[in-house]
Each structure stands twice: as structure tokens, then as C-alpha cells.
Design brief:
Helices cover 9% and strands 60% of the residues. It has 209 residues and is mostly beta strands. Strand 11 and strand 12 form a beta hairpin. The longest helix is centred in the first third of the chain and has 19 residues.
Amino acid sequence: MKKLTLLTLAISFFSLALFAQEPEETDVKEDFKRWQIRFRGLFVSPFESDNLPGAEVDVSATATPEVDFTYFFTKNIAAELILATTYHEVDLGSDVSLGGVWLLPPTLTLQYHLPMENWKPYVGAGVNYTIFYEESNGDIVDMDYDDSFGFAFQLGVDYFLNDKWFLNLDVKQLILSTDVDAQVNLTTSVPVEVDLNPIIIGFGVGFRF
């Protein structure tokens, strides 16, 4: 199911790109490049909350590499597919370790770009599907996270060094929650709803073609 969902997101992105291409005309010269690829370093900081009375789940911040692909339908309108994976430690207060978990949150956004000479600021919004995998248990018997859909909002800017290469600064907010089943012992489990809502700050280099 996890692989099928990720494949569906990828197919949706590339299908949008293919259907948006206009028929080629030999007498019209395309004056912008349709594809961009970026390589970024990300800093991911969750703003977590939960529904446990009298207890607080703490999810660690982390850093990770990322790759993303952008297709331009016009000079201003584009779609971006973002791929990265992050590892987070999870604690209950300061005394109880709930182990750690890997997150794979492929995100598809629709963007509006505003070219201004070497600068190209943009805003975007879209959808996210987060896959939780390779959970560790920490001080309890078992942890199980439900995969979930969410929303994404972004603000960024590209700075072009030449016609092909550029630098990028990007900030995203994911609206993301998950249902967690914490198996405290062999007979007792505690269901918890955790809102993660991470802020993601990325900086890197890109290439367009």
C-alpha cells in the first residue's frame, strides 16, 4: 500500500506534465525551460501537539538531503514533486523514550512564480502523503504510526547564476497528523493523536533544462 501510494503521486505529477504540453510548432520558439531539478539540504522542525492529558509528546528536529522536480506549464505556473526522508526521535516528556521513526513525506505542490531578472520568488500549495516506517520502541513494548494525508504550503525564491544554474531558498509548512498506538505492556495500549505540523527550511542548488 505504501509503495502504491508513492507510485500514484509520482504518476500524477508526470501525467500532469505530459498532458500540459502544447503541440509543437516549428515556427514558434519556446522562450522558457519547462524542467527544473534541485538538490537541497533541509532542516525539519516539528511543531507537535497531542491529545494526551497531562503529558507531552516531543519529536526531535532533524536535517536531511532532498531532491525535487519541477515542471512549468507556463512561465508562471508550475508543479513540484518533493522527495526526502527524515528520522526523528520521539519522547514522552523528558523521562520516557518512545523510540524513533523514519518519515517519507512525498509532497506535490502547485506553484506561482514571478520572474524578476535574476530573481524568481514563488508561492505554492499542495498535498502530502507521509509514510512512517522502521519504528523503534524505546522504553515501551511497541509503537505503531498510521500513514496519513496532509496539506503543504510553501514560499521560496530562486536566484539564477546563469541561464541554467541557480540557488534556492524554500520554506514549507506541512499540516500533518498521525494516529499512534503505543503498546505500554503486553496487555495495555494507548491510542494517541499527534499533530506534527513541521516547518521545513531548505537551501540548495538547482538546474533547469
